[in-house]
């Protein structure tokens, strides 16, 4: 029995420690799986973007190189001699140009470089599609050519393009044994005379087949030293269709009897990647089986000059080193857990041993009393203030009382039995009534929950539909501007193209903000301390087309120096709403003032205030008290959620919104943000919200 008590005390004492440590292990495992997995996918996505940008940079560099050749003195001198030939081209000029182009081809690492007339270019089906893009400036792009067309450019390209196709696990069996097509990065540069007429072109480029310089350069750029764990391999590949034509993925680490790596040229991509990237045109960011191992991979489709998907660019790194490190961490954590348990068990056993003997003696007395013997615990040999000594005294006293009252209990047993029976019947009746009430309460509660969910769902759907309008308007505005500006000079609208991409990302941020408005407890956006002025300037860039369409004059007064704790995308959303509303409030031409200044209280800076003032039509008193209500709007094309969502964002930061308006003169919205964000749960439903008339 003593052993049982000892083990029970040890078990009960160690149980909380065991549960805590085991929970810590599982929480750590879960966190590592989720966080590490997301980080790996984010990294390979960034690597893929860099790899694709590097390929685009190759085309731009190639375009710049050919333009530099066409503008060089040697080329222009030989070209003038050739152009001035009346009937037949001057053999010396032709020979000079050919030698010059060959030297430049070798110096720049190009696979071909030639001078071609407009007539020959128009007759070439491969160049015909590029001519309308290169009337006045250079144009570059990708194209796939069969062997016969490669031979028309340069006979050496035919042999270089040939790649033996190798059957690959997780890929369909190839229908042919040899790939003879070539993937070219080709540039066409017009050569104009003094009158601006174009009669000749420089045609040059590189062949990706068997080309290792580009992929090795991108690999060294993306997966430099220290970017991956030990034994992890970073690789980059260019695919023609689903065939690896340029790669640093190896068939085996060190081939026998050679110093050159045996690259996996001619191997195939897995079927699921091929389906998603080349057939469906989507980006692949996930695990993928690359040749003979699993890699964290990213694939992006490559488009030719006609916008047709012709191949892929790949970037990725091996998964096994990350799994090895993860398992090693789990083993280390488990070892620490066992060690802590052993030490804790030893300490608990030694501390509890002094209690075991008195507890064992008490247990023996209790067992004897249960068997009918009339004995007492008596002295335990412990200090009088010890809890077990007091327990023994109380137990002996209880036994004496039980013995005296045993007779009374026996006498009252019959009467008690009758009362218990009566009470039982009464209790059964009340229990049945309580069960009915509980059932009714449960049904009522279920109905309330259902109604609440339906209401929240309706608000959420309406909010999402509304807030998508703002970034969509920005996207459409920039696309219209892009169409208007397009012509011969594409570079003029590069900034607007980047802005379109940023607004697509902002749509996702707005949807997350809607979910946060509907269920703020479940979506706590991270906040950081940052200056306000850069955020305001970024907002002006995003909303400038809405302002320009209304023909308003923007007056900026940025004097704020302090920083505030905010979530940048959410604050951008609020400011864009206010600026768009201010622009729409001005019917004709007018002014908008945008101000930032430090928020002072008792001579100390407690935050920053942002003001948006317009010379619009103003807001009536009746409308002023309802503008922050969901779904309330005075605009025909509005949904009434812009200001409601903005107020929710500022409220959750503990900030304030003040509105002052005078009908016919304009409106001022003032946002107050604290240096340290306050707990929004301490605020009432409309605390921090102030209305008033605009001062004249």
TrEMBL record:
Which CDD domains has this protein been placed in?
Answer: HisKA
GO molecular function terms listed in the Swiss-Prot or TrEMBL record: phosphorelay sensor kinase activity
> Which Gene3D superfamilies does this chain map to?
1.10.287.130, 6.10.340.10, Histidine kinase-like ATPase, C-terminal domain
- Assigned EC number: 2.7.13.3
Database matches in SMART domains = HATPase_c, HisKA
Question: Which ranges does the record mark as transmembrane?
Answer: 9-31
Per its UniProt record, what Pfam families does this chain match? HATPase_c, HisKA, sCache_3_3
- Mind listing the UniProt keywords for this protein, alphabetically? Cell membrane, Coiled coil, Kinase, Membrane, Phosphoprotein, Transferase, Transmembrane, Transmembrane helix
What main location does UniProt list? membrane
The reactions it catalyses are: ATP + protein L-histidine = ADP + protein N-phospho-L-histidine
Q: Where, subcellularly, is it found?
A: Cell membrane
The residues covered by the HAMP domain are 353-407
Coiled-coil ranges (or none): 392-437
The UniProt entry, under InterPro entries, shows:
HAMP_dom (IPR003660), HATPase_C_sf (IPR036890), HATPase_dom (IPR003594), His_kinase_dom (IPR005467), HisK_dim/P_dom (IPR003661), HisK_dim/P_sf (IPR036097), sCache_3 (IPR033463), Sensor-like_sf (IPR029151)
GO cellular-component term (any): plasma membrane
Q: How does it sit in the membrane?
A: Multi-pass membrane protein
Q: Residue limits of the Histidine kinase domain?
A: 463-677
What the entry lists under PANTHER family is as follows: HISTIDINE KINASE (PTHR43065:SF22), SENSOR HISTIDINE KINASE (PTHR43065)
For this entry, the protein name equals: histidine kinase
- Species this chain originates from: Shewanella polaris
């Amino acid at each position: 029995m003593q052993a049982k008590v000892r083990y029970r005390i040890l078990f009960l004492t160690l149980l909380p420690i065991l549960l805590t440590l085991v929970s810590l292990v599982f929480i750590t495992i879960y966190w590592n799986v989720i966080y590490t997995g997301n980080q790996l996918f984010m990294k390979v996505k960034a690597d893929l973007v860099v790899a694709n940008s590097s390929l685009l940079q190759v085309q731009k560099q190639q375009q710049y190189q050919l333009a530099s050749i066409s503008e060089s003195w040697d080329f222009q001198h030989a070209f003038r001699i050739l152009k001035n030939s009346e009937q037949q081209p001057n053999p010396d000029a032709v020979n000079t140009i050919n030698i010059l182009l060959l030297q430049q081809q070798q110096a720049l690492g190009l696979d071909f470089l030639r001078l071609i007339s407009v007539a020959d270019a128009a007759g070439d089906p491969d160049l015909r599609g590029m001519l309308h893009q290169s009337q006045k400036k250079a144009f570059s792009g990708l194209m796939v050519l069969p062997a016969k067309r490669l031979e028309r450019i340069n006979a050496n390209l035919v042999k270089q393009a040939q790649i033996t196709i190798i059957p690959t696990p997780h890929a369909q069996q190839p229908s042919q044994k040899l790939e003879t097509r070539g993937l070219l990065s080709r540039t066409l540069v017009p050569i104009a005379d003094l009158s601006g007429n174009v009669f000749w072109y420089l045609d040059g480029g590189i062949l990706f087949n068997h080309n290792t310089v580009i992929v090795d350069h991108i690999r060294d750029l993306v997966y430099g030293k220290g970017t991956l764990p030990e034994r992890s391999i970073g690789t980059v590949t260019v695919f023609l269709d689903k065939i690896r034509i340029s790669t640093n993925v190896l068939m085996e680490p060190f081939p026998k009897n050679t110093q050159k790596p045996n690259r996996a040229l001619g191997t195939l991509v897995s079927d699921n990647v091929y389906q998603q990237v080349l057939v469906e045109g989507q980006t692949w960011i996930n695990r993928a089986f690359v040749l003979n191992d699993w890699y964290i991979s990213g694939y992006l489709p490559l488009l030719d000059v006609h916008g047709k998907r012709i191949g892929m660019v790949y970037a990725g790194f091996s998964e096994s080193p990350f799994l090895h490190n993860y398992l090693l961490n789990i083993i280390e954590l488990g070892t620490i857990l066992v060690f802590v348990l052993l030490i804790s068990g030893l300490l608990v056993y030694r501390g509890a041993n002094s209690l075991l003997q008195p507890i064992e003696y008490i247990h023996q007395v209790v067992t004897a009393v249960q068997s009918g013997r009339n004995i007492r615990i008596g002295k335990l040999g412990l200090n009088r203030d010890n809890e077990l000594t007091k327990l023994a005294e109380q137990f002996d006293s209880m036994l004496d009382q039980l013995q005296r009252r045993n007779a009374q209990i026996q006498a009252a047993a019959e009467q008690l039995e009758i009362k218990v029976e009566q009470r039982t019947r009464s209790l059964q009746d009340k229990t049945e009534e309580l069960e009915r009430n509980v059932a009714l309460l449960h049904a009522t509660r279920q109905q309330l929950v259902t109604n609440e969910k339906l209401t929240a769902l309706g608000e959420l759907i309406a909010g999402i539909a509304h807030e998508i309008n703002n970034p969509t308007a920005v996207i459409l505005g920039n696309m219209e501007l892009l169409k208007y500006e397009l012509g011969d000079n594409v570079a003029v609208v590069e900034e607007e193209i980047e802005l379109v991409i940023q607004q697509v990302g902002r749509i996702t941020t707005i949807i997350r903000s809607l979910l946060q408005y509907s269920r703020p407890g479940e979506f706590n956006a991270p906040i950081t301390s940052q200056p306000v002025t850069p955020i305001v300037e970024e907002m002006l860039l995003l909303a400038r087309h809405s302002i320009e369409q209304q023909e308003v004059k923007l007056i900026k007064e940025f004097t704020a120096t302090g920083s505030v704790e905010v979530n940048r995308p959410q604050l951008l959303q609020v400011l864009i709403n206010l600026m768009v509303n201010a622009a729409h409030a001005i019917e004709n031409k007018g002014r908008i003032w945008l101000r930032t200044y430090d928020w002072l209280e008792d001579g100390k800076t407690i935050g920053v205030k942002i003001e948006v003032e317009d010379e619009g039509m103003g807001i009536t008193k009746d409308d002023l008290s309802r503008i922050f209500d969901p779904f309330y709007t005075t605009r025909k094309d509005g949904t009434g959620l812009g200001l409601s969502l903005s107020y929710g964002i500022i409220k959750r930061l503990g900030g304030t919104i003040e509105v002052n308006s005078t009908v016919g003169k304009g409106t001022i919205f003032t946002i107050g943000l604290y240096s340290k964000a306050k707990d929004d749960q301490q605020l009432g439903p409309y605390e921090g919200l102030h209305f008033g008339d605009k001062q004249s």
